[in-house]
Amino acid sequence: MVARDVGTSHPQPLRCDHCGRAVRETQHTRTTYTVDYYSLHTGPVETCSLMVDDGERRVTFQKLLSAVEVITCVDCYGKADVQRDRELRFRVELTGEERTADQ
Fold this sequence. Notes:
Shape: elongated
Strand order of the largest sheet: 1-7-4
Strand content: 25-35%
Number of helices: 2
Mean pLDDT: 81
Structural class: alpha+beta
Order of helices and strands: EEEEEEEHH
Number of strands: 7
Number of domains: 1
Radius of gyration: 17 Å
């Protein structure tokens, strides 16, 4: 799967990173809407901690170092292997190893 840097403009038309199908923007009507793709922002992270104002509690979080966008069409979104890949990209700690933006 090829990932895109978030800061760059999208090639026309946008394509699913799993199957390559061209995807459409969300179509809105007066009463409903139709989604053709989902976008995930992911990339390499580092663990950061901050002290809360009371000085006694620490908040730990994952800081996104370099954002990468992954596009998934509605046809691929329900596939088990695609869901597994997206989950691993979103939750790197499940792999037990660091992932870089181009993985």
